[in-house]
Amino acid sequence: MRYGLGSEVLRNISFELKPGSIHFLTGPSGAGKSSLMRLLFLAHRPSRGLVTMFGRDVVSLDRDELPSLRRRIGVVLQDFRLLDHLSAIENVMLPLKIAGGEDRIIRAQAEELLSWVGLADRMAARPPTLSGGEKQRLAIARAVIGQPDLLLADEPTGNVDPAMAERLMHLFLELNKLGTTTVIATHDMAWVERIGAPQLRLDRGELTTIAAPAGAGTGSSRHGA
Ligand SMILES: Nc1ncnc2c1ncn2[C@@H]1O[C@H](COP(=O)(O)OP(=O)(O)OP(=O)(O)O)[C@@H](O)[C@H]1O
């Protein structure tokens, strides 16, 4: 992958995310973690090589096929991608509204999630009035509400205190147990060691896979990712 005519920021990479697996994406600043996340979210196409998502070659996808694939992906990227003209709760409800859920049920689910991430008193606020940490927690609630097939979280605990980081990590692990294939980019090696999931380790655009320590439990399998 390259940006425009720049040099390649990811190269010689080959890996597979098994359905229901959980991986940490690690590596020094500038190694290419966010770029790999953008590739997996189908926000960028590979400049060469092959990326297959849910069994589809992403390079051959038509533009109008992207939304239905993206709906299977919950994403917490560093730019949050929140809709500023909607309230916090409307942002969280949106993925399920698009999927055709009943308003009353979706609202109750969104309220429960927003309370879990500590935003019970900010449900009516619009994103521009939220702090960085609040926006991040809002993006997390929106990413997980639909129990996506794939969850991509880029530094999801970067702007929160240790108690909230604990809560958020618990949320991700619970979702993974329900079958969501999970990739969490982090600089926080304490989490990587504690959870004991395998690592996709990037260094200057090249990737090494580091297996989970023996005996470490990872998620269950649900559907093809
Ligand atoms: N939009 C962009 N246009 C051009 N180059 C970019 C762009 N975004 C990232 N890069 C470059 O791609 C390389 C990888 O950056 P990336 O943001 O993916 O790294 P990272 O591992 O996520 O870093 P960090 O941990 O600091 O967030 C860097 O050399 C960066 O300068």
TrEMBL record:
InterPro entries per record: AAA+_ATPase (IPR003593), ABC_transporter-like_ATP-bd (IPR003439), ABC_transporter-like_CS (IPR017871), ABC_transpr_LolD-like (IPR015854), MacB-like_ATP-bd (IPR017911), P-loop_NTPase (IPR027417)
Stored CDD domains: ABC_MJ0796_LolCDE_FtsE
Gene3D superfamilies per record: P-loop containing nucleotide triphosphate hydrolases
GO annotations of cellular component type: plasma membrane
Family annotation (SUPFAM superfamilies): P-loop containing nucleoside triphosphate hydrolases
Alphabetized UniProt keyword annotations: ATP-binding, Nucleotide-binding, Transport
Protein name: ATP-binding cassette domain-containing protein
Gene source species: Govanella unica
